[in-house]
TrEMBL record:
Residues 4-144 form the Flavodoxin domain. It comes from Cellulomonas chengniuliangii. SUPFAM superfamilies: Flavoproteins. It comes from the Bacteria. PANTHER family: PROTOPORPHYRINOGEN IX DEHYDROGENASE [MENAQUINONE] (PTHR38030), PROTOPORPHYRINOGEN IX DEHYDROGENASE [QUINONE] (PTHR38030:SF2). Pfam families: Flavodoxin_5. This is Flavodoxin domain-containing protein.
Length: 176
């Protein structure tokens, strides 16, 4: 059975993380596939599910939230992990000394952990290309406080993403 890596992305960074996780799971001997969360109609054929979403204005991507709403009964019946693709930049702490990864954890992630009975969840650094922003994103860039944290670049930490995927592969029974 397949491990599904369902992702919710607006600009592509989270999709790239999901593809990387699926590749690592495959390399570890599992059958794994990354798909946009909005396109998944049924998870009954999946042995386990990883759900990932970008974070916008402190919230997990709406397609990730909708995916959990649609499938929470089926998700509770199988191993689930969640991730968000959030902060930008290379700093590990904000100017008040708060851990950036912890501060970037979407407030609604805990609720989705409960709904799915997730075995674990994590936050990965994301990516931002200002030339690709939609209207809402461009408007947000005009707000000085938002501009400070919307740092251009690709900050995805591939070794950390790979290590997390391998920890999932290790926790699941080896693929037969
Ligand atoms: C309009 C806008 C708002 C954002 N708000 C947050 C936020 O509240 N917290 C956060 O950690 N990252 C925030 N980000 C950074 C995105 O989560 C990051 O760029 C993410 O990797 C984008 O994923 P995607 O390319 O899959 O859409 C924001 C980015 C944009 C463009």
């Amino acid at each position: 059975m397949t491990i599904l890596v369902a992702y919710a992305t607006t600009y592509g960074a989270t999709g790239g993380i999901a593809e990387h996780i699926a590749r690592e799971l495959t390399a570890a001997g599992h059958d794994a596939e990354a798909r946009p969360a909005a396109a998944v109609k049924d998870v009954s054929g999946c042995s386990a599910v990883v759900v990932g979403g970008a974070v916008f204005a402190g919230r997990w991507h709406r397609d990730a939230r909708a995916f959990v709403r649609r499938h929470h009964d089926a998700l509770r019946a199988r191993p689930v992990w969640l991730f968000s693709s959030g902060p930008l930049g290379t700093a590990t702490h904000d100017k008040d000394g708060n851990d950036l990864v912890e501060a970037s954890r979407p407030l609604d992630l805990a609720k989705h952990e409960q709904l799915t009975g997730a075995r674990g969840s994590t936050v990965f650094f994301g990516a931002l290309d200002p030339s690709r922003l939609n209207r809402a994103g461009r408007l947000m860039m005009r707000v000085p406080a938002a501009r400070e944290v919307m740092i251009e670049g690709d900050f995805r930490d591939w070794p950390a993403i790979g290590a997390w995927a391998r920890s999932i592969a290790d926790e699941l029974a080896p693929a037969s």
